[in-house]
Structures are given as structure tokens and as C-alpha cells.
Amino acid sequence: MVLGLTMAETLILLTFCLLLFIGVQLKKEQEIKKEFTELKEKYHREQLERKHHILVPISKYDELTSKAQKYDEQYAKVDHILIPRSKYDELTSKAQQYDEDQKEKTNRVLIKKSEYDELTSKAKKYDDAQKDTSGKKTISKTKYKSLTEKAKKWEDYQSSSSSKVSISKNEYRKLKDTKKKYDNIDKSPKWPPIISLPEAKDYKFRSGSSVISKDFEAKLKTVIKDEILKILKDYKANVIEIVGHTDEQPMGLHHGKTTLDQNILQFLDNRSGNVTKDTRLIANDNAGLGYARAVTVMKVLKTIPELKKYTMQPYSAASLIMPDESITGGSETLQESERRRIEIRVRRKLKNRD
User: Fold this and answer.
1) In the CATH hierarchy, which fold is given to the domain comprising 202-352?
2) Can you tell me the distance from the alpha carbon of 245 to that of 293, in angstroms, rounded to the nearest whole number?
3) Which of 103, 232, 254, 286 could bond to 318 as cystine, CB 3.0-4.6 Å?
């Protein structure tokens, strides 16, 4: 036994102490290795930095620093560049040669011809503007234009004031309104006159028929044609309307069956004047008779060269409308020959109306 411990316990204690010692030594060894690694890395960094640096004495460093400061003070505020000595000598030589070439051109500069002309022109304008500045005032172009316009208006007013009357604005507005109303009345459309051709004045057709008399046809081609042309020109019209009017006497069945529907186009196309079964116009009532007579007159007018360019349209008013344009009452005392008539009217086409 050692110190009261058995041999086994003593061996265990010694083993523990040995392990403790070994642990302490291992820790120290790790610390030493870490410190060595750090020193090695620091050394490598310093070696890398020294590749881009040089080691100079402190006195040399101070000298260089002083000169650099003086250089900065001298050249920091001017626009300089650092060039090789050879380049400097070359430029200096050329500059000297240029100076020698310019000795005879003292106080002169060499500029482009276009620039010289521009400067000369501006100088002349300035000299012209400065010739007489006494008693003048400088104003903007806008102000000058405004003053000029007002001065002209005043001169115009003064020159014509002898023929003018001073009135209030309210009175002037009333007069303008009155004039406007008058102008509207004066400019209202004037309807062209109606050419009325009654049987009572020998503008005749065969009784109950659309066959026109020779005398009526001759007048259509002469005096009536001239009257139509004058009205067309005066009123700038381009449409001729022919309206047939009849009396109120009913037409008998003896006139036969109407042929207006089937023969009207053949009648207009027939230029020979010969009446055939296909070109004869038969009406069996006053409405049809008025229409047939209007178509007959239109056919005559279409043969007149001066009227060919105008549009012609036939209509029938039958016995309904009186010569005074009133509607018949059925008991009028007016002569039947006055009611049997052809009316010719002119107008503008709808698309050409104002």
C-alpha cells in the first residue's frame, strides 16, 4: 500500500495524472502552432507589400515630400500637362517660327472669310444704329408694334372724325341689331316667278286630250323659251318643273282606258312626232290629263338646245288648285279656260340649295 492506497488505486491515480499532463502539453503545442501560423501569414503579407514599395531613408523621404508639395502649390491651379523634352523643344521651335512669320502682321488675326463677313455686317448694323441715338428711347419690338398700331388707329379716327357721330355703346348695339334684322330680311330668298300659260290666252290642247296646238308649241320654242332662260339665269336655277292643271268637269268613259303607265316612256322617246298605238297618251280622269299635258310640254322643251342641260320634271295638279293657288271649293265661278293651264316653275336642285 502507498499512502493508504492499494496498488491498483495508485496505478489509476498515476494514469490520470499522466493524462492530465499530456492534455496540458497538447494544448500548449496547439497554441504554439497557431501563433506560428499567424506569424507566417503576417510575414507573407509584408513580403507581398514590399514588392510594390521601396525602402528609402527618412531624410530622402522628407526631401521628396517637400518637393512634391512645392510642385502641387505651383501647378495645382493652372492647366498644365507633362510632355517629353523632345516634344517641348519641337513645339517651341514651331511657335518661334510662327512668331517670326507674324511679325509683319502685328495686331492682326487670321480668321475665315465667312466669319469676317459676318462680323463686318454686324459692325455696320451697329454703326448705323449708333449714328443718331440722341433723343431716342430703346423699347421692345412688341411694344413698338403695339404703339404703332394704336397710333395708326388714332390717325384713321382723326382723319374720318368729321364724318362720324359719337353715340353710346347701347345705342350702337341697338343700331347693329336693327341693321342685322334688316339684312336678314333683305337677304331672304326671293322665289322665282311662275310662268302661267292658261288656255284663255290661246295656250291650248285638244279638248280632253294632251295633243298640243301648233301655235302653243311655236310659242314654247320662242318667247316662252326666252322667258324660262332668263329666270334660270337670274335665280341660278337648274330644274324646270311643268305642272298641268285642269277644270272640274269629269271625263267620260268614252275616252277609253288610260295608257299613261305603259306608253309614257315610249311617248318621250318618240322623236318622229307620229302618234301610234304605243305612243299615244290617253287619260280617263283630270289627274291623268294634267300629267299627260305636262309631259307633252316637257317633250317640246327637251327639243330646245338651250334647255337640254337642265333637269325637267312633269307634275299634275288636276283640278284641285286655283290660279290664285287656293284650293278649289267646287263652286267657283271662274271661267274653265282660266283654270285649264300649264305652269312652269324653276328651282335649284336640293343638293345645290344654300
Assistant:
1) 60s Ribosomal Protein L30; Chain: A; (3.30.1330)
2) 9
3) 286
Give me the half-sphere count of Cα atoms (radius 13 Å) on the Cβ side of residue 323: 18
* Short-list 304, 265, 295, 263, CA closest to 282: 263
With beta carbons less than 8 A apart as the criterion, state whether 288 and 248 touch: no
Q: What is the pLDDT of residues 42-51, one digit of tens each?
A: 877 777 666 6
Q: Cα–Cα distance between 221 and 305 in angstroms, integer?
A: 10
Q: Report the alpha-carbon distance of residue 250 to residue 272 in Å, rounded.
A: 32
CB count within 10 Å of CB 299 equals: 21
287-299: pLDDT as tens digits: 999 999 999 999 9
Count of CB atoms situated within 10 Å of the CB of 133: 9
Please give the share of the chain, as a percent, with pLDDT higher than 70.
76
Domain boundaries, the chain: 202-352
Instruction: Determine the pLDDT at residue 102.
Output: 67
